[in-house]
Write a structure and sequence with these properties.
The protein is of the alpha/beta class and 176 residues long. 22% of the residues lie in helices and 14% in strands. The chain has one domain. Strands 1, 3, 5, 6 and 7 form a five-stranded mixed beta sheet that branches. A two-stranded antiparallel sheet has the order 2-4.
Length: 176
């Protein structure tokens, strides 16, 4: 059994995603990538306790599309499986969503457990355990088209509209 007080190896450090992304876009000839961040964050305190709140789930996972190549666990990046418009689906059952269209660390994860990137089943358990008050009737798919302008001007307002339409008190964004 390993010593629980032992330090991790020197190479075991957090992955520098911001630096990697900047280097990636520079290599593609786009200039320095500018991460979206704001001085004022548009979040507000909960108006009800979480145990009474209706939660909206927002995901970047895509509905499985047969015929568009490997989209399963351990699949290589698959741009064909990408989506470009906000979508919604019911929260009363867990749909077949995949994340092969996303750029994530495939060396250190397998994407075999969908609860890590689409925790709808776990949220149903949280409702039953009365940790959250309930779920909105739909969850919402947020496109990952790499355009801050489209995200801020089109996709985010549409997701907010749907959250409000469904009576959400709080939203859980699970980007993959």
């Amino acid at each position: 059994m390993a010593d629980p007080k032992a330090f991790a190896p020197e190479y075991d450090v957090p992955i520098q995603y911001i630096l990697r992304t900047r280097d990636y876009y520079l290599a593609l000839g786009f200039g320095a990538y500018r991460w979206a961040h704001f001085n004022d964050v548009p979040f507000t305190p909960l108006t009800v306790p979480l145990a009474q709140a209706r939660m909206a789930l927002i995901t970047t996972a895509a509905p499985f599309q047969p015929g568009l190549g490997d989209q399963g666990p351990r699949a290589p990046y698959n741009a064909a499986a990408k989506f470009y418009k906000v979508y919604s689906d019911a929260t009363d059952s867990v749909p077949d969503l995949r994340i092969s269209h996303l750029g994530y660390d495939r060396k250190h994860t397998t994407a075999e457990d969908p609860n890590t990137w689409f925790p709808l089943a776990r949220l149903h358990e949280a409702v039953k355990a009365r940790r959250i008050g309930g779920l909105t009737p739909r969850f919402y798919g947020a496109p990952t088209n790499r355009s801050q302008r489209v995200t801020m001007d089109t996709d985010a307002p549409e997701i907010l509209r749907r959250c409000r339409e469904d009576g959400a008190d709080v939203a859980l964004l699970v980007p993959s």
